[in-house]
Amino acid sequence: SKSVAPQEMKDSTPAEYKASVEEIQEKFNEKIPPEFLTPSPIKTRIGELEFFDGFPSPKTVQLTMENLYVSRAIQSFLLFMPAASLEAMRASHPLVGSNDAHQVVLLDNLLDSQPLYLTGNTDTVYASSILDLKKSGPIVVEIPPQCGPGTVNDAFFRFVTDMGGPGPDRGKGGKYLILPPDYQEDPPEGYFSSRSPSYINWLILRGFLVDGKPDAAAKMFREGLKVYPLSQADSPPEMEFLSTKGKFYSTIHANDEHFYEEVNRVVQREPIELFEPEIRGFLSSIGIEKGKDFSPSEAQKGLLQEAAAIGNATARSLAFATSNQEAFLYENSYWKEAFIGGDYRWLKHQGAGGRDLDARAMFFFLATVNTPAMALKMVGIGSQYGLINRDSEGNYLDGAHHYTLKLPPNAPAKKFWSIVVYDPQTRSELQTENPFPSINSQRDQPLTNPDGSTTIHFSPKRPEGEGINWIQTVEGKGWFSLLRLYGPLESWFDKSWRPGEIQLVAAGAAPPPRPAEVEKVSTKSTP
């Protein structure tokens, strides 16, 4: 909301407010300027605040202290979303039998819509493992040649190291050593070594399709990936690869009061230095502090429930209805980028503007994996993304309607491109009759128009006609989509190639909603 400058506040003050100020001024020897005084009552968004000569009434104390608790809890929700998300990822692995680093979750049949992953892709073979450096000490990760982009993130979802093509092995394979925060010795030679600020870390690797199939990538991981403690380098445990086909499980954080329990687990487990004192203060003010039980009273539980609801709503507003002009990829377009500002740390203007907290919250509400490779210009390497959740008229995308998206010829992807559809509730793949709600240029070989462009249809029922590239949607549900470019080319970065807008072809039973806030987006970035 717009902040109110002191002069604006004074000019808009009701007559009784001014009269109250003047009455206070009469009790001083000198005429005290009104901006130094606290009249009574003061009407605010949290209620009417009452004072006796500046002393707050019991009602005012209750209102302001509850508001302080809720506001600190809301800020904690937005600040610690990355930690809660990584904790949810950690907690998901035992659900499919992975209790140690050498027990790797391998999505050898690709990620379908059954489990919940924040904007996971249907296009690469994921290999995932949780590294518990407190339990095992330093951990070695041997990755095979030709491994796709891989990353290790710490317990606050911060970048530790890249692997594969964007990593120091440059796709040739190699041995990586992840050191715990309390490691004091010089690291041994022969490894790409990184020290993590946390004990829990997430290893996530991607393998590319070959001839549109996952078999070669799955074979590469099964035969070449090794994860083991450095202390067991002479006799490492036998690798286990756990397929998740046909299993439902969730890797996403809570959006209610249970969110704070997830964060508390991270605080209790990790070194206190993982979080800066300033933001630790937000947590301690709501009862989360290292070495202490988190046991909110019944009244506080109610306030945490309210705070989580507001935090969730705020994150959704940032993710789906942002007015930040830097979020939009093009003028007169609703396509947005994932890393607003082009910095994986979300530092504004090389740090002069501090950290863009709203941009970071938007990213971690929708996605996982934090690496410079996703933000930097790396022509032909890694991947780039475009996000969209509105049609060309600014309406949210509605699963009851028929839309089209036209991709111009010569998509800027050295390897391949894909379009995946997601559910706004879970931010995971949309669950439809098709377990893979996507089109992949390599796997699916979509039909092209005479001019070389590709038209994709989105609707609950397959449109009539030949040559239809179709992704199913669901009546009564919204959806949003990500365009992925693997091996992005220069025409993506210089914006000489750009995707079309999503066009409404035919409405379903009801017109799609047009939220009022869309009008606030500058015409610089909207049709």
In short:
This protein has 527 residues and is an alpha+beta fold.
| Major beta-sheet overview | 6 strands, mixed
Instruction: Walk across the major sheet and give the strand order.
Output: 9-8-12-6-5-14
Sheet-strand content, in percent, reads 15-25%
Which word captures the global form?
globular
C-alpha-based Rg, rounded:
26 Å
Distance linking N and C termini:
24 Å
Number of strands: 22
Structural class: alpha+beta
Essential attributes:
about 525 residues, alpha+beta, 11 helices, about 25% helix, disordered N terminus, disordered C terminus
What would you note in describing this structure?
The chain contains 11 helices and 22 strands. Strand 3 (51-52) and strand 4 (55-56) form a beta hairpin. Helix content is 23%, strand content 21%. The radius of gyration is 26 Å and the shape is globular. The longest helix has 23 residues, at 298-320. The strands form 6 sheets. A 6-stranded mixed beta sheet has the order 9-8-12-6-5-14. A 4-stranded mixed beta sheet has the order 11-10-7-13, with no helix packed on it. The protein has 527 residues and is of the alpha+beta class. Helix 3 (58-79) packs across helix 9, helix 4 packs across helix 7 and helix 9 crosses helix 10 (357-366).
